[in-house]
Structure formats: C-alpha cells, structure tokens
Design goal:
It is a single chain. The protein has no helices and 43 strands. It is mainly beta. Strand 14 and strand 15 (about 150-160) form a beta hairpin. It is rod-shaped, with a radius of gyration of 56 Å.
Length: about 475
C-alpha cells in the first residue's frame, strides 16, 4: 500500500508505504494517518491488479501557548517564555518529537535552548516546544518559531537597565545668605546594580532655582568628574534669600535620572543700633559719657565682635575706652562747646559696613525746662531716711538735656500741722537754707540723695522746700517733710 504523492503514515508498519498480507478472508487492511493536509490518494497493488481510494485530510497545526511581550531589560530573561504546541490533523492529538526551529528574525537576542540567536527544540509529550528569550541589545526583538506545519512570532522591546545617580549629601539645615552650606551637595554614580561606582564620569551640577555660587568652579553651573567612589561634589554658597535648588545630571550615561536637592535660604539681618541714638547737651559745655550700641545678628552670636568707632569734628572718642560685653559695645565720648542747634555725629561699625549712628545736638539755655520726676511730697518719720529727690532737665520738645547746670535751692522751715478752716495760718519759722549746683547726666537727671536734702536739727519736725532752676526760665519745686 502507498499514497500517491506521500503525505500519510500507515499504522500497520509506521511508514509511508507498507506490504501487507491478506487474512483468511483475503483482506489486507491498515489504519492511515495523514501527515499533510489536502486530497490524499491511496493505492493498493497485488499481482492480480490494483485499486485506489481517496480522502481529504486536515494538516497538523501550530498554536501559541505563551509568548513574551512588552519591555524587557537587556540581559534579562523575559518573564514569559515563547511556547508553541503542535497538534495532529485531528486537531486534538499532540505531535511529540517534531522539531521546531526558533530563530531571532529582528533585533538581538539570546535564546535559552542553545544560548545563541537560533535554536532547534523538539516537542514534548504534550506537543509543546518552549524557548526563553533574553534581549542582548536595546530595540525591538522578534523571534519566529517554524515547523513543517506552520510558524508563529513573538516580539519584545529590549530596554537598557539605567545607571543610578544617588544623592549622598543634600542641602540640609538652615543657611543664611553668604554662608557656605554644610555639608555641601554630592551625588554618587553607580551601575544598575546600585553598588558598583562609575569613576571618571562627568556630572553637571547647576543651580536650578534661586541664586548661589558653586565651589567646584565659582559659577552657577559646573562639570565635576566622579572620583574612584563614583562621587561628584561641590560646595554651595547662597547669594540671595528664598528657595534654592541644585540639580546634578550625569553626562552621557545610560538612563540615570537627574537628582535635585532643595532648601530655603534665610536673609541675614545684622544691625548696629545706638542705645541713645540722639543725645541732647547743654550749649557751650564739655560733657563726657559712655556711648553704647547693641549688635544684633540673626545668624550668629556677636560676643567679642570688633567695632570701629569714627567721630566727626566736635566729638572725640576716648582712646582705649572701647569695650564689648555680650552684644553691647561702648566707648567714652567727649563733646565740647556745641552751640544751640549744632550737631555732631559719630558712627559705630561692625561686619565691614554695618553701622549705627550717634548724634549729639546742642540745646539753648532758653529752652531748658525742669520737671519733678520723683521724691516730692514724701513724709519721713523722725530719724528716717528720705528717698532720692529726682528732677529732669529737658528741652521744649521733652528731650533729656545732658550737661545743664542746675541750681538747687533748699529752704527748711519748722513743721506745722494742717491749718484750720478759718483764719490765717502762721508761716513756719525758717530753720535754714542752702544753694547748690549740680549738672544733669546723660538722661537729663539731677538726683538728691538723703544726705543732699537738708534736715532739721534734733527731733524737731521740719519741711524742706526744694526748687531746681536751669537755664533762663526752667524751674520746678517739691516739698519733703520730716515729721516730729
């Protein structure tokens, strides 16, 4: 028995032709399996003659069991294998042991069956041939499976695993304009494994927001080469307040993402302020006092900070008298012979240009006024101590006047009880009087302590009338009583 044109397999002998013996009934028979699709013509020949028979066969088929898709990192095996199944012409029975040729028809890949771009794989008992796919270069990879019964394809996109740029030191903490950030900004460039450093690679570091100078080159954008540990770094010095961002980008490497660090820069507030920025002094006199300024800095302590004192004509700073205590600096000052309305100035400077101003103004004696500040109206028991009596000399605008000569008149009279409602009250006997002169201090004050206030002799009660006079019209009076 045979098939014209082949395409069958006889079950009786397993071949494409068979010689059979007739049975007792004179019959020779065999099952037939088609190996190709289409019209099949069979011939049986014997010495006595031949006969033919025919049928239409369905071919073996190939179907896809699984195929890789999407993106696969170069050098990485695709998660899903490429697998096809061969089925016999009946559409059900698996075809075992048939060769399937897997071949890379586009792109570059390594196939797992043989480790090259093309491999042959025999179907297993389920009729399945399976192949793993590993892209070896970036781009589209197409793998084709071929057998005598058909073909199928699978396609993936090979992508390169990126190198990694890591921030080692960001812009941490608080920084003021002009201060260098500590620590600075540094990044590490490593391979895709996250560990192996890439040395000798250029990294661009630039100020991407705000204003700053980069120590690596003195500008706002620097190219830094990574060291043996893959690190590129630079110092950062902000030059303006506000939001600051610094960005690092590796040059010419595979896929490493840029890294950015941010921080807020604070404006430095420095000041030198005189405790008494304007001092008013009596005209024509010489006065001495200690001028003081307060040093303030929002970014650092000011203890021991040097201060440069400078005076204009008419003002002198006393050599060797400069002092600093904590945040306060002081110096001895002398001003002589200012006329009414004259002004002289001095400056105190720190931090090379941050200055405070001290102004001294001459005040005419015609403007002097005297005010009682405290100590008037007190009553002191016999043997007791009087509280200080304080007067202040001011100008017409109420500014304290230093250096004014004040005449203090004290008149002591015998103490009397309150007067009755009707009739005249007799004046107390005058027990003594005195006149002294004192000079107002930098706050315009004249102070009479206990020993400066006249007191009656012995246990006898007394009343002291105190009158202070300054300039051409300034006067003020108070009474202090010592009870019997």
């Amino acid at each position: 028995m045979s098939a014209i044109g082949g395409g069958v397999r006889f079950a009786a002998c397993g071949g494409t032709t068979c010689t059979l013996m007739t049975n007792a009934q004179g019959i020779a028979a065999s099952a037939v399996a088609a190996t190709v699709g289409g019209a099949i013509v069979l011939t049986a020949a014997a010495p006595s003659g031949s006969v033919t028979a025919g049928f239409t066969a369905r071919a073996e088929t190939m179907s896809v069991v699984s195929r890789p898709t999407g993106s696969v990192m170069v050098g990485t095996v695709a998660t899903t294998s490429f697998a096809v199944r061969l089925t016999a012409a009946d559409g059900v029975s698996p075809v075992m042991g048939e060769t399937v040729q897997f071949r890379t028809t586009a792109g570059s890949a390594r196939l797992g069956g043989c480790g090259s771009a093309g491999c042959a794989m025999a179907t297993d008992a389920q009729g399945v041939a399976t192949m793993t796919v590993t892209p070896t270069a970036a781009g589209t990879v197409v793998v084709t499976a071929n057998s005598v019964t058909g073909s199928a394809t699978a396609a993936v996109i090979g992508t390169v695993l990126p190198d990694v740029l890591q921030v080692v030191e960001g812009l941490a903490g608080t920084v003021y304009v002009g201060d260098t950030v500590s620590p600075g900004f540094s990044v590490r460039l490593v391979l895709a494994d996250g560990k192996t450093p890439i040395a000798g690679q250029a990294v661009t570091i630039n100020v991407s927001a705000g204003a700053a100078t980069l120590g690596a080159c003195g500008g706002t954008s620097c190219t830094v080469v990574t060291d043996a540990n893959g690190i590129a770094s630079t110092g950062v010095t902000p030059t303006a307040a506000g939001a600051l961002a610094v960005t690092a980008q590796a040059v010419g490497v595979t896929g490493a993402l840029a890294q950015t660090a941010t921080m807020t820069v604070l404006a430095r507030q420095r000041a030198v302020a005189a405790i008494e920025p304007v001092v008013y002094v009596a005209e024509g006199v010489t006065v001495n006092w200690t001028a003081q300024v307060v040093l303030s800095d929002t970014s650092a302590a000011t203890d021991g900070l040097p201060v440069l004192w400078t005076a204009s004509a008419g003002m002198q700073f006393v050599a060797g008298s400069s002092m600093v205590s904590g945040s306060v600096a002081g110096i001895g000052v002398q001003v002589s012979g200012l006329g009414a309305g004259d002004r002289v100035q001095g400056t105190a400077c720190a931090w090379s240009g941050v200055c405070g101003t001290l102004t001294v103004v001459g005040v005419s004696a015609a403007e002097w006024q005297v005010q009682a500040v405290s100590g008037g109206g007190q009553q002191v028991a016999a043997g007791g101590v009087t509280e200080p009596v304080v007067m202040r000399v001011t100008d017409a605008a109420g500014h304290a006047v230093m250096g004014a000569s004040v005449a203090v008149y004290q008149t002591v009279t015998a103490w009397q009880q309150a007067c009755v409602d009707q009739g005249r009250c007799p004046a107390g006997a005058v027990m003594g009087s005195t006149t002294t002169r004192v000079v107002s201090d930098v706050a315009g004050l004249v102070t009479l302590q206990n020993g400066d206030v006249l007191a009656a002799v012995g246990e006898q009660g007394s009343a002291v009338q105190i009158t202070a006079a300054a300039g051409t019209q300034g006067t003020a009076s108070v009474m202090v009583e010592r009870l019997p």
